[in-house]
Design a protein that fits this description.
The chain has about 400 residues and is of the alpha/beta class. It is built from 13 helices and 13 strands. It folds into two domains: about 140 residues, Aspartate Aminotransferase, domain 1, CATH 3.90.1150; about 220 residues, 3-Layer(aba) Sandwich (Aspartate Aminotransferase, domain 2). Bound molecules: 4'-deoxy-4'-aminopyridoxal-5'-phosphate (PMP).
Amino acid sequence: MKASNRISTLTGGGSDGWDLFYRARQMVADGQPIIELTIGEHDVRTDPSILSAMHASAMSGHTGYAIVPGTDALRRAVAKRIETRTGVPTGPNNIMITPGGQSALFAAHHATCDEGDKALYVDPYYATYPGTIRAVGAEPVSIIARPENAFQPQAADIAAFAADARSLLINTPNNPTGVVYAQSTLEGIAKVSEAHDLWLISDEVYDTQIWQGTHLSPRALPDMAKRTLVVGSMSKSHAMTGSRIGWVCGPEEIIAHLITLATHTTYGVAGFVQDAATFALNAGNDLEEQVAAPFRRRRLMTMDAINAQNIVRAVPAQGAMYVMLDIRATGLNSSDFANQLLEAEKIAVMPGESFGAAARGHVRVAMTVDDVTYIDAIQRILAFAKTFVT
Ligand code: PMP
């Protein structure tokens, strides 16, 4: 039997760019001592206080179907968090709870794009973006953010593709670059979105991981709340990747449609997970800061090591749990660099091409192992790069 065209073409054909990741995983399975700096998953687990709240909720009986849009308490907690941080009036009816940010990205595109519509996204990009857009039947169109612009997308580049597009997906703080969009970048994005009547889908799942500057949500720019859908998640902020809990924040009418979509797809999120998330959000900023602290520390360690040599350069990362290293001075392309590094040093990093054409000549390092292992790995990466330069 033949599968649908849509599902068969979801990844756009060819490699999904994660070959190196799977190769490293196989080497681990074969018993090799690989340092994995590949995926965005913390080296700590969910805080025990959050797990206790989850346990208490389940034991008290919150194990049945939860209400589809999300519990009132969690929708209120998310709305309050967003309103406090952005100043934009936000209520529970602006929030739909989803099983993670990934599901929120799918729902946001489903709610805004029709079959065949062009949906813009910025390259370098989080690996699932084009597939998520294809999953709703829309056509992904990439906007290149160039290294010479510090990977900040330029309004003129977006405008060039915006005329017949329906939506624009952005991500700040950015995976994979660690770049936090400047206010001027976001104002440019807002201007283009308004001029071309685009929906703006703003992926802000790294909003608690800011090392320099401030995170601005484009929903807070004048007149933008009506055309912006914010994607949020507890995965990165609270080390709750496996709990699968996130949200979409947007205009009430769109949220109402998303509830209908959820009724026909996910049918909600586990109540005890929602109660744990409510507990975590109401616990204040301390938990978030605790989860973010190791990355803040490791980023500084990375910068010190980079500044002590002149072959590998780092993209000036202001946020998120990654650093992008510019390895063009080695003369290798990023895939060869990453594969040879894995072979020679048993260190796995992601080739830039896994995140789109714009990240060529770069590798992404996830700062997700303990400090001692991490800095040792960085020093070895730099020493390895040096061997290619005479
Ligand atoms: N957006 C970005 C930019 C991400 O990096 C990720 C996960 N790595 C997600 C969304 C999805 O995260 P989750 O589904 O765990 O919330």
